[in-house]
Every structure is written in structure tokens, then in C-alpha cells.
Amino acid sequence: MKALLLTVATLVPGALCAQGLVDAAVEKKVDALLRQMSLEEKVGQLNQYSSNLDLTGPAPTQGAQKEMFDQVRQGKLGSLLNVTGAEATRKAQELAVEGSRLKIPLIFGLDVIHGYRTMFPVPLGEAASFDLALIERSARVAATEAAAAGVHWTFAPMVDIARDARWGRVMEGAGEDPFLGAQVAAARVRGFQGKDLAAIDTIAACVKHYAGYGFGQAGRDYNTVDLSEHTLRNVVLPPFKAAVDAGVATAMNSFNEIGGVPATGSVHLQREILKGEWGFAGFVVSDWGSIGEMVPHGYVENLEQAARVAMVAGSDMDMESRAYVSHLLGLVRSGAVDEKLVDDAVRRVLRVKFRLGLFDDPYRYSDAAREQRVLADPTHQTAALEVARASIVLLKNEGGLLPLDKGARTIAVIGPLAADKDSPLGGWRAQAQSNSAVSLLEGIQAAVSPATRVVHAEGAKLAKGRRGFVFELTFNTDDRSGFAAAVEAARGADVVVMGLGEDGFQTGEGRSQVDIGLKGLQEELLRAVLEVNKKVVVVLMNGRPLAIPGVVEAVSAVVEAWHGGSQAGHAIAQVLFGHYNPSGKLPMSFPRHVGQLPFSYDHKSTGRPNPVPMVFWSHYTDAPNEPQFPFGFGLSYTTFSYSDPLLSAAEMSRDGELRVSVTLTNSGSRAGAEVAQLYVRDLVGSVTRPVKELKGFQKVELAAGESREVVFTLKASDLAFYTAAGRWEAEPGAFKVFVGGNSRDLKGAGFSLR
Ligand code: NOJ
């Protein structure tokens, strides 16, 4: 009962207009429509099914398809996911608009995570660019393509903070840091939604998975989450809040329980925080079946109870549980659910449909001619190339092996991913055509002069058998038949480029691993190649941080290229040959060992942080505490040096500002870009504070030898956190501020907040 009272109190959100979702004229139309709707029709708006059925094909033969069509005509369905293409979406829309009594259009949703047809790097890779304008552009292109194919709504951005690389979904987010995560979340929302949701090239975004999904125990997908309010507020929620502030139209809740309550049934998360404190005016869609999954969670006895709990908690739309369509009507009629809650949920859904312009013209996004034109737009490939190369992180370059000598006579390109045209497309490839990426081999072939011979040998396959979105991968652990040819190719080459890493379907949903090294025979192949040629550049293509200390040790150069999208091969080649000077920085630390996980650079100090000549300090006895490559790390073909930071004052008032400036110098011999990073440490708090937290970054391009003053401005609000008093505010006291090129190598100064 308590929950029910709370919910009614939070029906009317506060700061709605700031998010741009609420407009008086639209609200009037929503109210007028709501008044005409029967309870059945209201429930219909909250019901979403997936359709992989061929809506453009021959007349439906399957019962399921007929049933679905009937439900659309009866107004029992508000949304479909996984219908794509202008023609298919138009046909489905016709059923709703011409078949149903109130002609309420359907909203079509799809996972457009890192591109629709043109693929961009996986989001974790994109975050490595630390370039918000590029990240926004990538979402803009994805939205333009999706909107032209009749899609109204993407289930992105995924903003789950992720600190455990065992979790396969780390590739979908922006990594371990809440500040970077918040900036990237807002950039992606801006990119998908543009300035006007009603424009025909924008789509509604959906911030997900709300909340805590990235903290599943031991990195296992869907696993139990037990988070303190402290970590929830300080670490998990900031990117969600940033997306809401950026005007995100929808949110998706998550599969996990959190502190004993499934997120889908959480009044605290959905009613109190999201819709209450933050005034979110859009709607919340459940994750796939997550309402029904409250039964196996052991939170409710059956689907009917699940429907009640989810509705009371503020889950507005039911994705694929069929809980609302089966039970909500009865629950309202019996008085178990207040109809006001249903009205509020429907109002939120209709609000977004109106804002998308669907009531003005339900077919406006489904234009086959536009679809054809937009999907073939060559500027999208150019954008994909720019984003892919900016996402590449140079992890090691000893002895200046890179950039590669343009006069090389023979380059051997070896490894299971060297000629792979599919894996670079990544794990959430929407409507990308299989095998459509530029491979590493093709990129190198296109970049060299006719005087250079490029020889290729796969060496060993990474996986065997079926691969794909829903299949478990089987790795190749015994077929070495390609080793001899690879060794032969390496023997005669001036330099070897090895494409190693992960299959495109090795990260993503349901793809947790206990081991985050190189799978299959990859390391063995590398060792065999190293026997005959020491000049080896490892190009990693992967969706998660890898723990590969042996590999890093063994070779002179390591390039982290992620699953880089449609243009991956060209982007990597531009970096390898120095046509593009890499500037990416890691958005997630790379551990030395899986046993260090979960890990983040912004950990707390502990009471025993420092080494003592006994065992009694916080450490591992068999490995260092430090990761292999820290958050924010990435090299360049030039070098940068930082002066000590200069502060504009030693004290800062609550309403004042503090300027932190450093002189950044390109101390090498090539032009390059550096991501200058600002970190802060709050020395003492009402709750303990991290050893450092990112609070700003700037990407600065400098010619060889050039210096520039880089200025960061800090406000008290930048120092705010969720205090012991349960308030989001800064506490007075002493702070340290650090500036540098990664989270480890920093120069510091001190100030205090009055
Ligand atoms: C389940 C995933 O968790 C979610 O991220 C996705 O949007 C839905 N499936 C729909 O495909």
C-alpha cells in the first residue's frame, strides 16, 4: 500500500519542460485522446511485441502472425520491435492506423546500438575517442539511417557503468567512469534525437539498463546485483541523469535485481528517482520479458502479480512478457491497480508518439525511396572511418616499430582476424550486411604502394561452427593446420601485422567469460610467429578489455582497434602507416589478470593502502594491484609533456569557480592530438571518496614542438556527490587536483572549498 501511495504522488513530474518533452499543445491532444480510450485500448498502448516475421512476404501462414495482426487491429498493441525497412513498417502501421478504432500509430523500436546499416565502432571503442562531437555524429548517422528505414526508436544509449570485463556487455557502454559515461550518454542522446524529435531524420533514444545491470556478480550476465545507495548514486546513476537532462525520450529498466528487488519492480528506482527526483517525462519500457522474470526471481508468484508490481513500480511498457495485455485489465477492474497509474503510463507513451510526429503522418518515416537513398549515402562511410580511427588506442610502441615503414618490401598479415570482414561489425550490428566490413588485410592492401608485397596467412581459425547473435561460440583449440603457412609468411617478411582478439559475437548479451585472455590458439600462433620474426605488431580487435600480459610483453607494438565497424580496416591501416596519428584513450582499464576484477581507477583508498614490509596491506601476493593499462591511457606517435598545474586561487567558494591551467607541449616530432585529463580528489568526506575522479577532459591538437595553455574550470557542483546526509552536494574541505594524459601519470596541486 505504501508503494501505491508513493506512486500516485509521483505521477506528475516536476522539471519537465527543461527536458523538452512536455509541450502544452501536445499535452492537450494527449488528454483528449486518453478521454476517448477504453481501458482495453489503454492497456494496448503499453504492450510491445517483437516481430521477426516477414511482413513484406507472402500472406501470413502462421497463427502467431495472424494473432498479432488481429491484436494490432483491435488496438491491443502499442509498439513492435524488430520490424525494419520502410515497406515492412508501412505495412504494420497500416494495420494499426487503418484497422484500429482510434487509429493510434505504432511506435517501432530497434536496437540501433552502433549503427544501422553503416557500422561504427562498438560503443566502448567509440568512447575511447574521448571526442563527444564524433560520438554525437555517429549516433546522428545511425538515427538518419534507422529513421529512413521506418524505425522510430532505438534502445540506446546503453549507459551501464562497467568495471568487470568478464561481462560481455561492456562493449555496449562507455566503460568504467561515471563522468565520461555521463558525457557520452548525453552526446548519444543528442545524436539520436537531434534538436527536434519530429524531424524525419531523428529517432527517440532509450537510456538503459536502469539500473545497476553492469554490476552483476562475478561479471555473469543477468546475475544478482547488490549495490549500496552510495554506489548507485555516485557511480551508476550519473549517466542516466545526464541522459534525462539531455531530454532522452524513453528509458529501459533492467533484468537484474538490486538489493533484493528486481529493477523492473523497483518503486525506488523508477517512481522515486527517475520520475520523481529527476522529473523524467518519457516512458519506461521493460527489458525483454523482465516483467515476467520477476517470477523466477522469486519476487512474485505469477504473471498477474508481476504485472501489478511492475505497473505500480512505474514500468510503463511491457516488452514481450505479455503480462499487461493478459492481466492489467483485470487488475484495474478488481481495484488491485489504480487506473490513474495506467493513465499516466499511457500518457507517457502517447506523448512520445506525438513528439515523433506520428499522429501528423504515421508513415512519415516509412519512405522506401528515401530509405534507399539514405542507406547508400557515402558520407556515412566517411563518418564511420573518422570515428573508427579516432577510437584506436596505441597501447605499446617500443623502438618506434610504428608507424610502419612505407618502403617495406613485404608485410605479412597473419591471424584469425586478419582477413575477417565480419567481426569488425561488432555484436549489435542492426541491419549491417554480413561480411561487409573492410578487413585489416584489405585496409593494408589498399594503403601500400605497388612496391610492397602483402602476404596473408590466417594461421588458425578463432572459432569453429556456427556463430551469430544467438549462438554460443566454440573456439578452435586443436586445428593448427594453418600454422606452417603463417610461420612461412612471417619468416620472409620485413614486418608482421597480426590480427588477434575476439570474434564479433564474443561480446554482447549473454556473452560473459571467466577468462578474458586471447581465446583458442591465438597466443600459440603468435609465439610460433615470434620464433621466426620479432618485428610483430599486434592489432587487437575486441569488444572488452583483455588481460594479456604475456602478449604485451612479447611484442614491440600493440594497437587496440576494437570492433571498429564498416571501415575498420582502412582506419587501422591509416594508423599503422602513420597517415593518422592515434589519439584514443582507454575508457576502461585493462587488467593484468582476470582476478583483479572488478576494477576501476577511481577506487577508494582502504585503511591500508601503502606497502609495508609485511603482508598486512591491501594487495595481492601474486600480482600487482595496478592494471596493465590504466583508464585514460593511450600513446601517440609524438610525445606530450605537461607543466605542473596552476590554480587561479588556493580557495574556492561555493558559488565561485577555480581555473586549473597547464601548459601542454607536443615534445615530439609529429603533429598529434592529446586528451588532457583533469582529476580531483576530495580528501575527506562524510562518506569516503575515491582516490581520484575524472572531472574534465579536452582533446587538443598540437603541431610538433607547439605548446598551448589548457584551462579547465571547476565549479563546486563538479565536486558534488551523494553525501551521508543523502544530498547531492559538495562538502567544504581540502581537495587535490591532477592533470595528465592518463589516470596514472598525473601532476597535482591542492585547493580548498570554503
Ligand atoms: C534485451 C537487451 O537486454 C536489451 O538491451 C535490448 O534492447 C532488448 N533485448 C531488445 O532487443
Architecture overview:
Helix content is 29%, strand content 18%. Mean pLDDT is 95; it is low at 1-10 and 12-18. It is built from 21 helices and 29 strands. It starts with a helix and ends with a strand. The longest helix has 17 residues, at 132-148. With 754 residues, it is an alpha/beta fold. The site of 1-deoxynojirimycin has 7 residues, from loops. 1-deoxynojirimycin binds next to loops.
Q: Into which percent range does the helicity of residues fall?
A: 25-40%
Low-confidence stretches: 1-10, 12-18
Question: Nearest-angstrom radius of gyration?
Answer: 26 Å
Strand content: 15-25%
Structural class: alpha/beta
Q: Compute the number of helices.
A: 21
* Shape call: globular
Q: Tell me, rounded to a whole number, the average pLDDT.
A: 95
| Largest sheet: number of strands, sense, barrel closure | 6 strands, mixed
Q: How widely separated are the two ends?
A: 44 Å
Q: Give me the side-by-side strand order of the main sheet.
A: 11-18-17-16-12-13
The total beta strand count reads 29
Ligands present: 1-deoxynojirimycin
Descriptive labels:
single chain, 754 residues, alpha/beta, six-stranded mixed sheet, five-stranded parallel sheet, 21 helices, 29 strands, disordered N terminus, binds 1-deoxynojirimycin
